[in-house]
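Q&A log
Question type: sequence-to-structure
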Amino acid sequence: MDNKLINIDDIDIKSLIYTVRGKQVMLDSDVAMLYKYATKEVNQTRKRNIRRFPDNFCFQLTNKELLDLRSQIVTSSLETTDMYGGRRYLPYAYTEQGIAMLSPLLKSEVAIQVSINIMNAFVEMRKFINTNKELFERVITIENKIDAKFLGYDNKFEQIFNALQKDEKFKQKIFFEGQIYDSYKLIIDIIKRAKCKIVIIDNYISDDVLKMLTKKNKDVEVVIITLDMGNVSKLDIQKFNQEYPVLRIARTKKFHDRFIIIDNEELYHCGASIKDLGKKCFAISKMENTEIINIMKNIG
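Response status: OK
Response body:
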């Protein structure tokens, strides 16, 4: 494809940033595509100004690094050709500093806007990595625990994902607008943890809450403490109790926030009403303060 026909606004630049040697980098072919150059031209520009590009600005991938990247990238620029034909050498990787150095050397009608977009993408990636640092460390730890017999990358990442799901109980999760299924699934997973009792404190409930509670374990008692029953009627509760006993409702005006208490041992704070999960950005957090848990477990 001719780079000049590509609309930069249609490209998710963050998806073109990879981690190699502990650095966030972009490949020479992707840089060329964004600036509407041929890959060969980009690297010739670097070569003509070689003193401007120390190793922490730009470096050439090894065969192993190339194979590792190819295993991670579904549609890879590593497999494409440019107007000069197929690749005859290992790709070069440009760090954020390398691209900043390269930008003024490339004379392009889109150069300024592309440079801004790329720098913004690197900033967003750094924020994402810093925010999820603990998660990445857990992935690495879990990966090291996986038996060596899982040689295929697909199997390996599937094993990592499954192990991560079963690993330590989460402490906090943030959901964004539209993540309805993911947030509902987490609440249901919390509900399924209960072996004897669930207490839900939420000022506004709906029949959606009852539907989620049908996933609870058998004979687990449920107490809902609320201000407004919404569209839940006494008949709904009676029918629920006939099939999924026991559910009790208590009314109060004393609470503002939403909580879920599991077996008088686990306390979760929910930033949104359970009936509104996924409609706005919110967080679900597990509270570790034993004093608070001891106070809250007497409720209901």
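Response note: DSSP finds eleven helices and eleven strands in the chain.
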